[in-house]
Design goal:
Blueprint: H1 7-15, E1 21-23, H2 25-37, H3 48-52, H4 64-73, E2 89-91, E3 94-96, H5 99-111, H6 119-122, H7 127-133, H8 145-161, H9 166-170, H10 177-187, E4 194-197, E5 200-203, H11 206-221, H12 241-247, E6 251-253, H13 255-262, H14 272-300, H15 309-322
Antiparallel strand pairs: 1-6, 2-3, 4-5
Helix pairs in contact: 1-14, 2-14, 4-11, 10-11
């Protein structure tokens, strides 16, 4: 069977054929200018990783690497069926929703002495034990509990076969971001985030790429971020970044797609429109990165350095969360999936 196109090539392939999602030059320029203004800011470095997630353990802690493995393995489908019925987790006086409920639940479990970052434990934990770890403050549970249990125990068993920790597992790929993604996707089935578009197999690899980027973030915080090929990574195609790209005008949805999303229709995983939203988001961020690189060369006479697509994602995702009220008029697409 023909292997799938990698995420960057997938983004380009779909964007050139897309029927309902379009990459817009004016918006690309707008985002590139915004990022150019931040070019000397720590927000556009790997060090922004810990700032974006204050619930992550200290990068120097022994738990840090296994923590990102657990969180990234479970990092999917947090949107509520009804906005008024959200899963919530309170940790140390702060109540969290969305993705941060997961981080808060894992932090709470560690605080309670649950060895949730130990593959010996999470590879064989029961559904009930995971339900207790992920318990909500209210009657609305975190979605897809059984799927989360399946992917976490599966991932734990893979780690136990490869040195017993995420650090030992990922070291098999050397310090190469592309080889890391390929290793993760090859060994752990739940990370095989692929689809078919116009007869072509394509890949997004959202969680695999973010796992590598988080690993890089920890290494950078430790002063050890000597990982090659980070430019190979794309943005992490989810449901939050497309919204912020539409907000800035870098993406445009057709009237038919907008109407469908406003009506709250679910998009099945692999649906043409869902694939177009995710793939065009990848290609829009690639275009933004290229334009930012041109601005840095034209105005400052320098290269973009370490400002890659992962860094742009690390900036845009918290931006979307912080400005969610301003973007409330732009619908998020809803797909129940273990991939994002």
């Amino acid at each position: 069977m023909e292997p799938p196109l990698f995420p960057r090539q997938s983004g380009k392939f779909v964007a050139e054929r897309s029927q309902d999602v379009f990459v817009e030059d004016e918006g690309i320029q707008k985002v590139a200018e915004m990022l150019y203004a931040l070019r000397n800011s720590e927000e556009l470095t790997a060090n922004g990783w810990k700032k974006a997630n204050p619930l992550a353990p200290a990068a120097t802690s022994d738990q840090a690497f296994n923590w990102v493995f657990v969180v990234d393995t479970l990092n999917f489908s947090f949107w509520p069926e009804k906005d008024t019925e959200q899963c919530e987790v309170t940790f140390k006086g702060t109540t969290h929703t969305g993705y941060m409920t997961l981080c808060a639940a894992i932090a709470r479990a560690i605080d309670e002495g649950v060895p949730i970052t130990d593959p010996n434990f999470f590879s064989q934990m029961s559904v009930e034990e995971l339900a207790h770890v992920l318990r909500s403050d209210n009657a609305t549970p975190m979605p897809m509990l059984r799927e989360r249990h399946q992917v976490l125990t599966e991932g734990g068993r893979v780690l136990l076969k490869h040195g017993g920790s995420f650090c030992n597992f990922i070291s098999q790929a050397g310090a190469d971001a592309r080889k890391m993604v390929e290793l993760i996707v090859d060994k752990i089935p739940s990370y095989r985030d692929e689809a078919t578009y116009e007869g072509k197999r394509i890949a997004f690899y959202k969680r695999a790429q973010i796992l590598v980027a988080d690993f890089w973030g920890i290494m950078a915080a430790r002063g050890e971020a000597d990982i090659s090929n980070m430019d190979w990574l794309t943005m992490f195609a989810d449901y939050r970044i497309p919204q912020v790209l539409v907000y800035f005008g870098a993406l445009r949805y057709s009237d038919a797609l907008l109407g469908m999303l406003h009506n709250g229709e679910l998009l099945p995983s692999g649906d043409r429109r869902e694939v177009e939203i995710r793939a065009c988001s990848i290609w829009a961020v690639e275009r933004i990165r290229t334009r930012l690189s041109e601005l840095l060369q034209e105005r400052d006479g320098r290269s973009s350095g370490s400002i890659n697509s992962a860094i742009i994602d690390f900036y845009l995702w918290p931006y979307a969360k912080q400005h969610h009220q301003e973007m409330a008029h732009i619908p998020i697409h809803h797909t129940r999936s273990i991939y994002y």
